[in-house]
Amino acid sequence: MTKPVLVIGGGPAGLAAAHSLATVGRQSIIVEKEEQLGGAPILSGYAKLVPSGEWAKDAIGGMVKRVVDAPEVSVETGATVTSFDGEPGNFTAELSNGKKIDADAAILCSGFTHFDSVNKPEWGFGTYEDVVTTTQVEQMISSGNGVRCPSDDRKPQRVAILLCVGSRDRQIGREWCSKICCTVSSNLAMEIREELPDCHVYIYYMDIRTFGLYETKYYWRSQEEFKVKYIKARIAEVTSDGEKLIVKGEDTLVKRPITIPFDLVVHAIGMDPNVDNPFISETLGIDLEEHGFVGVGNRYGAMGETSRPGVYVAGAATGPETIDDSIAQGHAAAMAVLSSFKDLGKTA
Amino acid sequence: MTKPVLVIGGGPAGLAAAHSLATVGRQSIIVEKEEQLGGAPILSGYAKLVPSGEWAKDAIGGMVKRVVDAPEVSVETGATVTSFDGEPGNFTAELSNGKKIDADAAILCSGFTHFDSVNKPEWGFGTYEDVVTTTQVEQMISSGNGVRCPSDDRKPQRVAILLCVGSRDRQIGREWCSKICCTVSSNLAMEIREELPDCHVYIYYMDIRTFGLYETKYYWRSQEEFKVKYIKARIAEVTSDGEKLIVKGEDTLVKRPITIPFDLVVHAIGMDPNVDNPFISETLGIDLEEHGFVGVGNRYGAMGETSRPGVYVAGAATGPETIDDSIAQGHAAAMAVLSSFKDLGKTA
Predict the structure, then answer these.
(1) What's the Rg (C-alpha) of chain A?
(2) Which residue in A has a C-alpha nearest to residue B325's C-alpha?
């Protein structure tokens, strides 16, 4: 007799894991701290996803529907795991809603926390209404309202997207790269240009990290087809002249100061470790890595092993990750759980 | 009664897929065109892998042993698939060795082909003995012979690693980024510095793409702990003054020509589509994408779907990919096959 698998977090990785388990007849229970499944793409209202171009509400919404409709999956929203005891094949979890769950294994898919731009005050967020984040621009687009300046709802004529806000920045204790912001920003720049063909869009970068096939689909296409302008620069500050936002910095290719006025400045915010990771680490008895993400073993053995046997991890819980790779890791972690049953003498 | 799964290619993705299937009691047959399993890390003699730091022969060698020892996996080396007919649950494949295989599904893990540096003649490969590739340096390290100049076996005092050889280069029809060469080169630079502490190592780059957590572990560590020097430059040519190799280019940060002598110049070669892809595409009846890699569907449904139902794809067959992500995709594709049996009315 097998027990269900505890899936902690109902974003792309968790939805993939629960679906995979369901397709082979394995029960799972998704415990999601928010009131709704879908993770960042749904909860933060993302627009069109990289690299598919599909709307988040359709793509990830479809993944949500799939598990909600599956009789093998039960869902506990608005709940967290408050205690977790036992060993592989015989875990017991208590939830914040008072329920108790017996589980064979757990897959931790607790994701990340968006960097809060107020921690980078010299770049104007929190001071100027028209300094926003990539997440806010995603919401402007996905809501159907279009990209507007929050101060007066006008259509911006000049937009600056500043990369690496909360990434590659030792001054604020975030030295990692958030992996996907370059590509997401290229994508957003094209969406802005598509909606507002007269709007000029500039991307300020340190290195453009549109790795792999994203190079052609995002970096080159955004420049050649959509006339997005890329400036390699070190930003000093974002101020205002009372009318426009002023982005001051140094163009690091020509080693000259540049000061350009904009209507809208967008922070391409990075991925922090989930703020709950210290609590999750203690509750589940698993180690975090040096930056505070969930530590994960090498992939040559089982996928997604944490420091605690029987507890697996997938997706951006382990570090900045793309949605696509989070999904792959979710499926692979489900597979790892199925594989582990062999050792437990249980069948799928 | 279920048939085996045909796994085409015995590199990291294929080894992961076959292992996963075996752990749930599913038969698979790996068809590998080379005489040995392991894919590029084994066949090309890689040294220590990114990001684990484990030797390829141990890490991937362990994955090979695992499937060779599994009674559920059979292996056909030195063989290719020459015909493939049927539909999900009922495929028949013919191999170049004359064998016929019935299969429920296929997972294509046929990987990539290393870029051949002779296609970039102005950078000196093929002309000067001491211009080598990252793969050759991997072999120098993994063989235990150490990093030496091929012309006279001396220890180099100055090494240049040139990034993006066969990547991000429209002149030679390769506009994609090969994703992992930046990180692999940082890693190799540290290994060279570790073996030869008096050797200066320079990395010539366009953008440093050590994405995610690789940023701290490779980019910063290589600079701070190992004193590797990074030069943002456009390379014009690699020549020789009769004694040293001369790398000529423009430092794009100071907009000045730079000419530096080196003992050893290393091409960080990119990942081409597998040269066999046109044949694979025709034999399996699957579509390739615009660059010649294997086309793959979005990940919101099943993982790794090709244009032909029942044929899945994982790893660098789909585009430049890391070993870690190839492994994840291999496990996830195995899971996708298991999931598909539900629709076929078969159980795992």
Answers:
(1) 22
(2) A325
> What confidence category does residue A12 fall into, taking pLDDT thresholds of 50, 70 and 90?
very high
- pLDDT of A347 over the 60 cut: no
**Model's pTM, two decimal places?**
0.98
Give the count of beta carbons closer than 10 Å to the beta carbon of residue A87: 10
d(CA B226, CA B220): 9
Is some CB atom of chain A closer than 8 A to the CB atom of B62?
yes
What pLDDT, in 10s, does the model give residues A76-115?
Answer: 999 999 999 999 999 999 999 999 999 999 999 999 999 9
C-alpha atoms less than 13 angstroms from C-alpha of B160 in its C-beta half-sphere: 27
Query: Would you state the structure tokens that stand for residue A159, as one six-digit string?
Result: 């937009």
**Token reading at A108:** 């931790």
Q: What is the CA radius of gyration of chain B?
A: 22
**A284/chain B closest Cα distance in angstroms:** 23
What does the pLDDT average to over B225-243? 97
User: How many angstroms separate the CA of residue A140 from the nearest CA in chain B?
Assistant: 24
Buried b (16+ CB within 10 A) or exposed e, B109-124: bbbbebbebebbeebb
* Amino acid found at A11: G
- Cβ pair A54:B348 closer than 8 A: no
- Taking residues A125-136, what's their average pLDDT? 98
What residue spans of chain B are helical by DSSP H? 12-23, 39-43, 56-68, 134-142, 181-195, 214, 221-224, 277-284, 323-344
CB contact under 8 A, A328 and B325: yes
Residue A179 above 90 pLDDT? yes
| Predicted confidence (pLDDT) per residue in B57-87, tens digit | 999 999 999 999 999 999 999 999 999 999 9
Answer yes or no: do B327 and A299 touch at CB < 8 A: yes
- A145 dihedral zone (left: phi>0; alpha: psi -120 to 50; beta): alpha
Confidence (pLDDT) at B288: 98
Taking only the tens place, the pLDDT of each residue in B251-271 is: 998 889 999 999 999 999 999
Residue B120 makes CB contacts below 8 A (sequence gap 6+) with B165, B166, B169, B172, B267
DSSP secondary structure code for residue B121 in this structure? G
Interface of A with B in 306-335 (CB under 8 A): 319-321, 323-325, 327-329, 331-332, 334-335
* Closest residue in A to B293 (Cα–Cα): A213
Q: Nearest C-alpha of chain B: how many angstroms from A21? A: 8
